[in-house]
Every structure is written in C-alpha cells, then in structure tokens.
C-alpha cells in the first residue's frame, strides 16, 4: 500500500511540474519585447473585378 502511495505521489509531482513548466514557457513567449514583423496583405478583389470588366 505504501508503494502505491509513492507511485501516485510521483505521478502527481510529475503532472504539477509539467504544468508549471508549460505555464512558464508560455509566459516567456508572450512577454517577448521584440515585435515580430507583420505582413499586411492588400485586398486585390477590386483588381479581379476590374480585369473581368475589361474582358
């Protein structure tokens, strides 16, 4: 019975450690000061409509 409690305690410890590591890594990723380059896509629907009208 004691070994079962040890095994359950070990799994709970591993589970909680995994949650803490995941939360810390997500927080460090979200708190980065360097903004990523944003690519803005231009709307080209008006060009397609103009091309259809021209044909």
In quaternary terms, these chains amount to: single chain
> What is the C-alpha radius of gyration, as a whole number of Å?
27 Å
| Shape by Cα distribution | elongated
Mean pLDDT figure: 83
Strand content: under 5%
Order of helices and strands: HH
The SS-based structural class is: mainly alpha
Task: Summarize the model shown.
This protein is mainly alpha-helical and 55 residues long. It has two helices and no strands.
Give structural notes:
This protein has 55 residues and is an all-alpha fold. Helices cover 71% and strands 0% of the residues. The chain has two helices and no strands. The chain has helices at residues 2-30, 45-54. The longest helix has 29 residues, at 2-30. It is elongated. 0% of the residues are buried.
Keywords:
55 residues; mainly alpha; 2 helices; elongated
Which secondary structure elements does this structure contain, and how are they paired or packed?
Elements: H1 2-30, H2 45-54
């Amino acid at each position: 019975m004691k070994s079962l409690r040890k095994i359950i305690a070990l799994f709970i410890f591993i589970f909680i450690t995994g949650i803490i590591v995941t939360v810390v890594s997500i927080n460090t990723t979200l708190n980065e000061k360097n903004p990523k380059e944003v690519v803005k896509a231009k709307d080209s629907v008006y060009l397609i409509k103009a091309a259809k009208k021209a044909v």
